[in-house]
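Format notes (please read before filing issues)

Several people have asked whether sequences and structure tokens are stored in separate files. They are not. Every record keeps both together, in the order shown below: the sequence lines, then the token lines. Line labels are part of the format and must not be stripped during preprocessing.
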Amino acid sequence: METNPLLEQLKQPDIQAALVSLLSQLPTYEKNLQAIGNVVSFGQAVLQDQQSIQKYDELVRSYNVNIETVEALVGLLEKLPKLLQMINQLEDIVDFVTAVLADQQTIDYATASIKSYTEPIVEKGKQGYSLVKDIQQQAEATTEPIKLFTIMKWLKDPSVQKSLKYVQATIQILNKQTN
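Then the structure lines:
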């Protein structure tokens, strides 16, 4: 007795399971095939419509697509993951700044912190301005001429000596740099 190879195949459980699965998916496959058929029919209709072909041809010809453009497009596509990562980071930063600007308590804290750093600097600036103004007023108020003996007395003053040492050092360094 000769056995039918098809019947032998159908007796195997994995073949039976595959057939059952195929039969249960058959309606989905039919819908997909109909959709593919519709796309193919549409494509054939478009390819037979000379007016549509002419419009697509004009559209394609209106773009300056050459090898450099294609290479640039490929280069851009290669960089898209990095660009996306940078855009995500930028978006996170913008979200953070927006959240900070929306929180009055954080703004008050930042303002107080900045003020604590800038107030000493502003105070020193005010003191310096006041000192310059006082010096200017005293210089303008003094009417007597400066004599040589007055300058000799000044030279003994330690603050004048220190200032003159700075002037001397500056002149020496400038001479070295120009030579």
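For reference, the curators noted about this record: The first helix runs from residue 5 to 10. The mean pLDDT is 89.
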